[in-house]
Amino acid sequence: MKRWLAALAAAMLCGCTAVAPYQRGYLARDDMAFDPSPGMSRALEKVYSAKEAASGGASVGGGGCGCN
Amino acid sequence: MTAALALPIAAIPARAVAAEANEMGFTVLGYKEKGLMKITEPVIWAHGTIQDVWEVEASAAVDIISGASPQLVTNVSGRPVNSISSASITDRRNTADAKVTRRFGDFALSVSRAISDENDYNSRAFGLGAEWSLNQRNTTLAAGYGKSNDRVGSRNDPTLHERRDTKEYLVGITQVVSPVAIVQSTVTRAEGRGWYNDPYKLTFTFFETGIPLLLPDTRPDHRDTLTWLTRYRRHFPEVRGTLQVDYRYYRDDWGIRAHTLEAAWEQAFGERWSVRPALRYYTQEAADFYSPVATNPPPAILSSDQRLGAWGGLSPSLRVTRRFERGIAIEGTLGYVHNARDLRFGGSGSPAFETLRAVYGIVGVRYPF
């Protein structure tokens, strides 16, 4: 597991193009965001996490519930 | 009543480039299972920047849950099946959270607080986060710590007052790959100690000889988890579309292993409209102590809750977004959930798993201010 993570980190950090600020127009698009709408993300988390054993991954400190 | 439901208090950047400085929104979820539960959840949220160095985010929501829930797994008919309670339950959960971030050039520190209250469960949590941007802000490293103190009760047993405490640790990296691609990867570890039994679940097992056993849901008093989430976004300017792929690996010390893969394509039509079809696949292995039938003598820990069984799920969805002047947007998502034992990756899942079918709709509005 640790070797996979180290390999992923190395792959992500090398071979990438350094993008200047004036080249980031496309990156500012809503569809390029990981979480463009907090309300939508929260609702989707509710839909799936109440029935699945797995949960979380993107944040910490969110607390728990009696839903599953 | 298992792992924490992580609210979207992101410890990692939600975007590679700052979006609207101040924005608020309102979202409503409607979710309906075939023959079982119905959930309605309105959410209000906002985030804003003060003097360019302070960021504040907050949200509040109400979960309104009604309907029937599988309460008992019994093999009285010869094979284990879920027995649905005839009494319809209604439950309401109020939640709120807030996060404050202070930026110091390429560094940022944040604190967050979350509360959640329902008549049989209360949660209080806080989080600390740090971000460091480097390489002309093409790379962002993130770290986070969270702690949750929960209190567990029961509608059926007023004397039940147990606690569950969870510590969480997160490390992550966000990397701009090119002017049209970005990737983010995070690893989260959680260590939970306390009460995990579900006070509403029972296992009722008949044997060829002797008296049947009625056992309460009994789970370990600890749960350590590891979650690895990787997300990729790639825009194709020539067709004005964006590929979005998310993968999550989950494992815990209950023996559960789970994979989640979602792929979506967001297609823009002009400047105002976009359509996003998506397909989500989920598969999980059963917990070590999961069984729809008890043995005699009974084991020390046993749960027949099928959410701890082996199964897989497919969920297609479609989102449509309409954008207006000044950054106002209305978005709607329709989705379908189909969970079944035969969808488990690699073969059949738990024999007693009963297929779940559900539909959901989410409507939201975003308003910059």
Short structural summary:
Chain A has 68 residues and is an all-alpha fold. Chain A has helices at residues 2-13, 38-49.
What does this structure look like?
The complex is a heterodimer of chains A (68) and B (369). By secondary structure, chain A is mainly alpha-helical. Chain A has two helices and no strands. Chain A starts with a helix and ends in a 19-residue tail after the last helix. With 369 residues, chain B is mainly beta. Chain B has a single domain (97-368), classed as monomeric porin ompg (Porin, Beta Barrel), CATH 2.40.160. Helix content of chain B is 0%, strand content 63%. Chain B has no helices and 20 strands. Chain B has strands spanning 23-33, 37-50, 54-67, 70-74, 81-84, 89-104, 107-118, 121-134, 139-152, 162-178, 181-194, 202-205, 213-216, 222-236, 241-252, 257-269, 273-284, 311-323, 329-340, 356-368. A 16-stranded antiparallel beta barrel of chain B has the order 1-2-3-6-7-8-9-10-11-14-15-16-17-18-19-20. Chain B is globular, with a radius of gyration of 22 Å. Chain B starts with 22 loop residues before the first strand and ends with a strand. In chain B, 41% of the residues are buried. Mean pLDDT of chain B is 91; it is low at 1-10. Chains A and B meet through helix 1 and helix 2 of A and strand 1, strand 2, strand 3, strand 6 and strand 7 of B.
Largest binding interface between chains: A-B, 58 and 130 residues
* Structural shape of chain B: globular
Q: Give the class of chain B from helix and strand content and strand pairing.
A: mainly beta
Number of strands of chain A: 0
- Beta-strand percentage of chain A? under 5%
Distance from N terminus to C terminus of chain A (CA atoms, Å) equals: 28 Å
Sketch the major β-sheet of chain B: 16 strands, antiparallel, barrel
Strand content of chain B: over 45%
Q: Taking all residues together, what is the mean pLDDT of chain A? A: 79
Main sheet of chain A?
none
Q: Tell the overall outline of chain A.
A: elongated
CATH architecture of chain B: Beta Barrel
Share of helix of chain A, binned: 25-40%
